[in-house]
Amino acid sequence: MIVTAKTYHVPVLLKESVDGLDIKSEGIYVDVTFGGGGHSREILSRLGEKGHLYSFDQDADAEQNIVNDDRFTFVRSNFRYLSNWMRYYGVEQIDGLLADLGVSSHHFDDETRGFSFRYDAPLDMRMNKRAGKTASDILNEYSEEALADVFYLYGELKNARRIAAAICAYRQQQQIKTTADLTKATERLIRTEKEKKDMARLYQALRIEVNHEMDALRDMLRSATNLLAKEGRLSVITYHSLEDRIVKNVMKIGNVEGKVEQDFFGRISSPFRLVSNKVITPTEDEQQTNPRSRSAKLRIAEKI
Fold first, then answer.
1. Could you read off the pLDDT of 267-295 as tens digits, one per residue?
2. How many of the other CB atoms lie within 10 Å of CB of 292?
């Protein structure tokens, strides 16, 4: 499969998310979700000669989109290690961070990766193909209770326990190695009228577990909070309620756990102020031309 920046991923809310960074010509910025490089290229177009951009991606395929620019550094790593890498490069503070938390179009469209139930493919789902358990490993190794927790917590599936039980019964006869195997194991429990929605939730849950997405997001946001300079901006695009809740907690309350801390006068103690109290969503035109943007929400906050 030939991968280019255009086919890898069409950037969502491109102008709005980069506008939200309020870029300073000589600032230091981080794009923690490089992907096809669309957001990174837009950031670079607004930087001066002394500005710099660090972009993260753990997927080896993304390296084909690397930008040839002296002001650009590509970091082949999970964004949860943001602090470590900034320390490695001698960066003490950054002026802004952008995160597009959606899965790249490339991952859904690559038949070999197992991210989509549209294709019969090995159940891999790893963003980093070099390490960690695959979705198949999880389906064949986790206990029934552990699988039910994954489906309920990360897929918000009401019949999570029944789906977990069906998978455990199926794997006693044969291992679940492909998307077709998973479909066969769960077909009696997936409602025909909501098949696409329920399967999407099931695959979302597995993908989140495979890649430890929620833990990685929490780690990254903690690091970003510490690294951002005064008046530095945090611009984050979310796609489902789980990650959006974490981002909202950080921006409104100041921590990923959602624990409200107040000062002597009862004011919420947060290191951020919301740049806009209203969540920014794609225009109807963008939703028509880029269907993957339909569930996107952009939140922007400034370090105070």
1. 777 899 999 889 999 999 999 999 889 99
2. 17
Asked if 297 and 244 count as a contact pair (C-beta separation under 8 A), the reply is yes
Read off the amino acid at residue 54.
Y
Q: What is the pLDDT of residues 38-71, one digit of tens each?
A: 999 999 999 999 999 999 999 888 888 999 999 9
pTM of the full predicted structure?
A: 0.89
Contacts of 202 (CB under 8 A, 6+ apart): 151, 155, 157, 163, 182, 186, 190
- Show contacts of 221-224: CB within 8 Å, 24+ apart: 221/246, 221/247, 221/250, 221/256, 222/256, 223/80, 223/82, 223/83, 223/86, 224/30, 224/82, 224/94, 224/97
Give backbone dihedrals phi and psi of 136, rounded to 5 degrees, phi first.
Answer: -65, -45
Distances (CA, A) of 171 to 145, 176, 186, 249: 15, 6, 11, 39
